[in-house]
Write a structure and sequence with these properties.
Family: Belongs to the Mrp/NBP35 ATP-binding proteins family.
CATH superfamily of one domain: P-loop containing nucleotide triphosphate hydrolases
Helix content: 40-55%
Protein name: Iron-sulfur protein
Strand order of the largest sheet: 1-2-5
GO molecular function: 4 iron, 4 sulfur cluster binding; ATP binding; ATP-dependent FeS chaperone activity; metal ion binding
GO biological process, one term: mitochondrial respiratory chain complex I assembly
Number of helices: 7
Structural class: alpha/beta
Order of helices and strands: HHEHEEEHEHHH
Shape: globular
Strand content: 5-15%
InterPro entries: Mrp/NBP35_ATP-bd (IPR019591), NUBPL-like (IPR044304), P-loop_NTPase (IPR027417), YlxH/NBP35 (IPR033756)
C-alpha cells in the first residue's frame, strides 16, 4: 500500500496537515492489513506531521532509521532519531543505504556518497545498533520496479544477503 496509489502517477502530492493526517488515518485504520508480524512504514525524512501522526495513531514497537552516507542526509536522520527518542519509541537500529558501489567491470568498490563512518558514528553517539549496509546497485531498483524484491529475484546475490542479514537481526531484536 502506498500514498502514491491515492493520486495519479504523475500527480504531485501537494497535501497539507489535515489532508496528510486524514490519508494516514485511512492507511493505518481502514486498510485490511490482515495478520501481520511487521508493518514497515517508509516515511519521508524529517520530523513533521507525518511522523508525529503515526506515533500518535498506532502503537509502535520500534523504529529503524535509514540514511545515505552524505552529511546532509545524516543530519535529517539524526533529527529522526531524536524525535523518536522524544516520543519514547524504541530505536531498533540504523541502516546505511547506498553505502558502496562495486564497478561491474573492474570490481573495485567505492564509497560514492562518502565514507561509512558517519552512520556508524551516529549509532555510537546515540547508542543505537548499526544494522548494516545496503549497497548501491542498479538491480535493486530494477527488481523493485518489477515488483519483485531482490531477496526473491536474486536470493544468492550479495545484495540479497545484505537485506537478509538486516532482517534477521531485526527479527532477533523484536523476538520473531
Amino acid at each position: 500500500m502506498s500514498m502514491g496509489y491515492l493520486v495519479g502517477d504523475a500527480a504531485p502530492v501537494v497535501w497539507r496537515g489535515l489532508m496528510v493526517m486524514k490519508a494516514l488515518q485511512q492507511l493505518l485504520h481502514e486498510v485490511d492489513w490482515g495478520g501481520l508480524d511487521i508493518l514497515v512504514l517508509d516515511l519521508p525524512p524529517g520530523t513533521g506531521d507525518t511522523q508525529l501522526t503515526i506515533t500518535q495513531q498506532i502503537v509502535l514497537d520500534g523504529a529503524v532509521i535509514v540514511s545515505t552516507p552524505q552529511d546532509i542526509a545524516l543530519k535529517d536522520a539524526v533529527k529522526g532519531v531524536n524525535m523518536f527518542k522524544t516520543v519514547k519509541i524504541p530505536l531498533l537500529g540504523m541502516i546505511q543505504n547506498m553505502s558502496l558501489f562495486t564497478c561491474p567491470h573492474c570490481h573495485n568498490s567505492t564509497h560514492i556518497f562518502g565514507s561509512h563512518s558517519g552512520v556508524t558514528h551516529a549509532c555510537k553517539e546515540h547508542d543505537i545498533p548499526f544494522l548494516g549496509d545496503i549497497p548501491l546497485h542498479a538491480s535493486i531498483c530494477d527488481d523493485a520496479d518489477r515488483g519483485k524484491p531482490t531477496v526473491v529475484s536474486e536470493p544468492e546475490s550479495d545484495r540479497a544477503k545484505a537485506f537478509m542479514a538486516i532482517a534477521d537481526e531485526l527479527s532477533r531484536t523484536i523476538g520473531l
